[in-house]
Amino acid sequence: MGIGFFGAIIVGGLAGWIASMIMKADTGVFANVGLGILGAVLLNGLLRLLSIYPAEAWIPQLVVGIVGASLLIWIWRRMRG
């Protein structure tokens, strides 16, 4: 079933905000939501390629979103130099 559309936005925003705090990135609300959602989608895809299926519940998806958003921030910083 998953967490749904609105749940994904809430979890994505929270995950992006936490990741920006961890990575000390100065991002706004919309960037936090985008980073969290995109990070979760990308990391879920990568994990599925490795045959790892995180539960489609709030807490596991929050963790995946935080890690994914943190990776996106890290990659962005490396690309910018």
Automatic annotation (TrEMBL):
Keywords: Cell membrane, Membrane, Transmembrane, Transmembrane helix. It is found in: Cell membrane. GO terms for cellular component: plasma membrane. It is a multi-pass membrane protein. The chain crosses the membrane at residues 6-23, 30-51, 57-76. InterPro entries: Transgly_assoc. The keyword Membrane applies. The keyword Cell membrane applies. This is Transglycosylase associated protein. It comes from Albidovulum aquaemixtae.
